Amino acid sequence: MSSPLRLRLTLWYVGAFSVVLILFSTGVYFFVARILVGRMNANLRVTLHTTRSVLARNANQSMVAEALEDPRFPGQIVALVNADGQVLARKPIRSAVAFRLPALPLRASPSPQFYELQESNSEADDSCRGVYQQLTPGAGGGSSTFVVVSASAETIGDQMDALETGLEAAIVLALLVSGSGGWLLARRSLSPLADMAAATERITANNLGERLPVGASDELGRLASKFNELLSRLSASFSQQRQFMADASHELRTPLSVVRTAAQVALHKPQRSDSEYREALAVIEQQAGRLSRIVEDMFALTRADMNQLPLNMGDLYLDEIVADTTRAAGILAQRKSIRIRSQSTGEAPYRGDDRLLRQMISNLLDNAVKFTREAGTIDVRLRQTGVIYEITVADTGCGIPDELQPRVFDRFFRVDTARSGPNGLGGAGLGLAIARAIAELHGGRLTLQHSGSAGSTFLISLPCRE
Ligand code: ADP
């Protein structure tokens, strides 16, 4: 099957071109016909005028017929005719073409009357054009004598026929040339599309790195580069998903194998003491808890990605949430002799999801406690600047190396995997990602304000709501 678009383009092109050509040729045809008829009428008028002036000078009626002169232009016949169409005199007396009169009676009008007669059935009678005018009374011919000048219009007809044939041939030729030119042009213009289609066919989920040929910087080139940009976004999103899957299975594998080993060790001997079973079950319970936390976090993130994390919006006070979460973190902090100071500028009414907002602040506080050395300090501050609530969590912890700071919000990212692993400080690297997703769900932002050897400061900005 040949390309239907190419065929359609060519047909449109040829169609539009033929309309233009036909309109142009019709215009030329009528223009030329007008010129030829106009020139012939002018010649007829000249002969009529000359004849009338000659006859006007011959007042004697008997002399009128003799005074008739030969016409000025070859092929013309000049005659004197009475009102009944009877020819009183004519010059030349014989001619190859027939002398034909218009429908009788002739009109007695002061201005010349032109007439046109089509080819008659008789072989000799060609189409003709003529002009007549009444002879001035007293100019010898009496009141009912007319001067008639007539000539064959066959030459004009022949010329118009030749013009018509020429124009028709030119139209057919021009359409053939434009049709084949249009076909080639359409093929050339559409060839990038064929290349793009072939390249698109080769692209699958496994080779999203492939790109379409961009070519010239025209509309098709722009389409190709927009498509390539889409591929880049898809490719980034695919590799993010793959990375997420790989990291998730890695995170789940470790606690699972700990559970399995604990169970295997407990079952290895037929009999164990109660305390040994308890110990094994405690390990299993701890790891199962970790597993369910990871799975819940992953689920929450996936739903947030799909905009499906249900938001239970309600009226609340941010200062209360900050105070509650700080108090809860204080219990953990006490074990490391960390001092938590909280500062708030008073009541902070807000509309949001109470549970999620608590989780967001707790995630930051948990990290602050986890990564702050013994006897350190954590400052939690809530203030309102204009229409924004700002919550800062600043610690005197180990800080995050500069080059890793942009990645702390990535899923499963941990600065020090060994220290944060299942038996270390516990996190799976999802806490900050979830906290940021919660801030964004409330129309706000979570950023790492600064981090260094003196500690880290995270900033939550939430737009105040009515
Ligand atoms: P996790 O659950 O492992 O804590 P997060 O997403 O909350 O995961 O944090 C990612 C990583 O960022 C942490 O593993 C830690 O290395 C680093 N990090 C987060 N908060 C702090 C902090 N306050 N001080 C130092 N490092 C931090």
> Rg to the nearest angstrom?
52 Å
| Beta-strand percent range | 15-25%
Question: Total number of helical segments?
Answer: 9
Q: List the secondary-structure elements in sequence, H or E.
A: HHEEEEEHHHEHEEHEEHHEE
Task: Outline the biggest β-sheet.
Answer: 5 strands, antiparallel
| Overall form | rod-shaped
Give the oligomeric state of the chains in this entry, treating copies of one chain as homo and distinct chains as hetero: single chain
Bound molecules: adenosine-5'-diphosphate
Q: Helical content, roughly?
A: 40-55%
Task: Compute the number of strand runs.
Answer: 12
Span of the ends, CA to CA: 63 Å
Low-confidence spans: 421-425
Describe how the helices and strands are arranged.
Blueprint (H helix, E strand, L loop, with lengths): L3 H54 L3 H7 L8 E7 L4 E5 L21 E5 L10 E7 L10 E8 L1 H49 L16 H50 L5 H32 L7 E5 H18 L3 E6 L4 E5 H18 L5 E9 L2 E8 L21 H4 L10 H11 L3 E8 L2 E9 L3
Parallel strand pairs: 7-9
Antiparallel strand pairs: 1-2, 1-5, 3-4, 4-5, 6-8, 9-10, 10-12, 11-12
Helix pairs in contact: 1-3, 4-5, 5-9, 6-7, 7-9
Bound molecules: adenosine-5'-diphosphate.
Provide keyphrases for this structure.
single chain; 466 residues; alpha+beta; five-stranded antiparallel beta sheet; five-stranded mixed beta sheet; 9 helices; 12 strands; 52% helix; binds adenosine-5'-diphosphate
